[in-house]
């Protein structure tokens, strides 16, 4: 096929895949939409937390009173107001009241370290903080409103709808996300971006006032707004599980069923645990929405609800792509992240910002109304990540550069392939750790896994696999290596397999890579059968190798590198071999003979060769 014709076909195909447009009310705002629901169904349940309930009338009234008080303090369009309240009825009142005043909320999780909270408040320069009395925060230079302690003051405020001049382009919230330098960065999102998410969500999942949804995530996670506003602007009810329930898959399943929840969002690691459970054949739950991390599993055919995989950086208003994951017995990779949501465009580009052919990996860029304003007080970072959109016709259109690797599938769905900056180089090979995970998850004993590059010893990088195993199924390191070897070259097989009770998670529900433990004798998986040494050389070599690897015992056929050995450890091993046996080995020899049995044979061969060149006196002196 002619190259220019092929390119033209691919460009037309890209335009078709990026075609989902959805008209939405231009003058609507979240506070007005909630007020309309309060007028239509004042006694309907809006928020339910345990035995506490807020009706729409009560939620709207308290939001109005808080808004009037905030306005007396100067809160209006684009004024940032902190909201540091745990998951509760008060949290929703606080967020709604800030929006009704015309301000933009900066949600803070009270469980975060005080130093981090102080940084966010100072960086955002919030003049007002909405919180609760028992939360002792550093609030220098700002006015504090405690919804509990100041309840009498707020009760005296007007219950009428406050007047606001806020526009679609004004800020609705600023969310702080982790920065690569360790310094959190504030992401600025406008009303029009949030409303696009709301109307897409309501249309896609047929949200009505009879729905029962959930709020499970940290208040400081961007998904928390996704869990609230599409439902509260539609007259539905939002249920808040307690802390134990939200973190325990079995308890969460039972709670979702008993409360008649119809739609729930769960961070991906929790969603994967939930779909592995047994569910009643009939349940009110229609949709389980997963997101915030890579989904590795397809649902079982018996799952009585739809599993939806979602993808989107905070910078593009929570969700940029979405798609249902169908049950599949066999798959050549993890589930796709779906297609662009309404009024969103996805581009997969090369380093020259040119579209790559379908099926070719490239960096994922996001355009459309969901792209936020950029980073608060970080113009240089905004210029680096938010670019003019060369593919859009309208003036001022922008692209967000995600730093994620992806490719288009033949049907227009998108395969997520991990972070570009997580590519690593080991022994001269460039490796994508996320390529290893699907093969590892193919083992029947592995429930979920993660592969990372660790550098526990400076200058020595190695692959380590972390796994949560299926209860009751035994697994050995050799069986894992065997299944990986069927799909991957040897340099992509992890050097150590670490068993975890559960993946450590951040407050936002993502896997906390910083909390993953270093491999040691207590957590590393070994082979079930340990072949004992049978010669003096093998016995001495085991005495050298086992302490070096921090293992109580090793088999003579265990691979030094697959037990966690590294190049630096290999150099130490070679030095001790020289001291013990008087022969010189190269690191290459260790790579070629990485087991005690093979290395012992090589040592004995070198010793014999050395003896043949020595005189009888030299041999006697050596034996002494």
General description of the model:
By secondary structure, this protein is an alpha/beta fold. It folds into three domains: 30-344, Rossmann fold; 423-515, ANL, C-terminal domain (GMP Synthetase, Chain A, domain 3, 2-Layer Sandwich), CATH 3.30.300.30; 536-623, Non-ribosomal Peptide Synthetase Peptidyl Carrier Protein, Chain A (Orthogonal Bundle), CATH 1.10.1200.10. It contains 19 helices and 26 strands. The strands form seven sheets. The protein has a five-stranded mixed beta sheet. β20 (398-408) and β21 form a beta hairpin. α7 (191-204) packs across α8 (223-232) and α15 crosses α18. The N and C termini lie far apart (79 Å). Mean pLDDT is 87; it is low at 3-7.
TL;DR?
By secondary structure, the protein is α/β, with parallel strands linked by helices. The chain is built from 19 helices and 26 strands.
Q: How are the elements arranged and paired?
A:
Layout: H1 3-17, H2 30-40, E1 45-49, E2 52-55, H3 56-72, E3 80-84, H4 89-100, E4 104-108, H5 114-124, E5 128-131, E6 143-146, H6 151-155, E7 171-177, E8 185-190, H7 191-204, E9 212-214, H8 223-232, E10 237-240, H9 243-247, H10 249-258, E11 263-267, H11 268-275, E12 287-291, E13 306-311, E14 321-325, E15 339-340, E16 344-349, E17 362-368, E18 374-375, H12 379-385, E19 386-388, E20 398-408, E21 414-419, E22 424-426, E23 429-431, H13 437-441, E24 446-457, E25 460-469, H14 477-485, E26 496-500, H15 536-548, H16 567-581, H17 587-592, H18 596-612, H19 616-623
Parallel strand pairs: 1-10, 3-4, 3-5, 5-6, 9-10, 11-12, 12-13, 25-26
Antiparallel strand pairs: 1-2, 7-8, 8-18, 13-14, 14-15, 16-17, 17-20, 19-20, 20-21, 22-23, 24-25
